[in-house]
């Protein structure tokens, strides 16, 4: 099979665990059993990034309020923003399978190995901590899943 032409702007090709002799899928998430469009389909990288930005801005506002009016014992605003963002990501992913930013944009987190099962605490913790490091979330495979999703067996879908 001939490999398509790639440039350095395409970034690295990260093989998917579902790559094989016929590794070109018709749409992102096809090999994961996800529909092409609509509810349950793979969320785009742009929508996922926008959800993270919404969560970050909300946490920054709350952190600024806490530092200005309540206490600065928890650290300055950027530190408290990160701590709040981690808590929101872990609690939201664990209990609701979405963060507030994901809910605003109609996204959710789902398990790949057992469709319909809850994400669970350990997956929510690992996903959120790896996302905080940015690089695992920025490195996506052919399906558009970040390394943090591949490592936890999850995928971000449209709800």
UniProtKB/TrEMBL annotation:
GO terms for cellular component: plasma membrane. Residues 1-25 are annotated as: Disordered. The keyword S-adenosyl-L-methionine does not apply. It is a multi-pass membrane protein. Its main location: membrane. InterPro entries: Pra-immunoreactive, RDD, UCP021697. Residues 43-138 form the RDD domain. It is found in: Cell membrane. The keyword Transmembrane applies. The chain crosses the membrane at residues 49-70, 82-109, 121-140. Keywords: Cell membrane, Membrane, Transmembrane, Transmembrane helix. This is RDD domain-containing protein. It comes from Corynebacterium yudongzhengii. The lineage of its organism: Bacteria, Bacillati, Actinomycetota, Actinomycetes, Mycobacteriales.
């Amino acid at each position: 099979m001939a490999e398509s032409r790639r440039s350095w702007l395409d970034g690295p090709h990260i093989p998917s665990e579902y790559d094989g002799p016929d590794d070109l899928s018709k749409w992102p998430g096809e090999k994961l059993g996800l529909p092409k469009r609509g509810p349950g389909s793979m969320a785009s990288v742009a929508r996922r990034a926008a959800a993270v930005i919404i969560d970050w801005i909300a946490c920054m506002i709350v952190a600024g309020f806490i530092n200005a009016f309540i206490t600065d014992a928890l650290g300055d605003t950027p530190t408290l923003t990160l701590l709040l963002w981690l808590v929101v990501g872990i609690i939201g992913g664990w209990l609701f399978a979405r963060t507030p930013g994901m809910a605003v944009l109609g996204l959710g987190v789902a398990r790949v190995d057992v469709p319909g099962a809850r994400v669970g605490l350990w997956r929510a913790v690992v996903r959120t901590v790896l996302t905080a490091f940015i690089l695992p979330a920025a490195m996506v495979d052919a399906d558009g899943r970040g390394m943090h999703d591949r490592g936890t067996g999850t995928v971000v879908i449209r709800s």
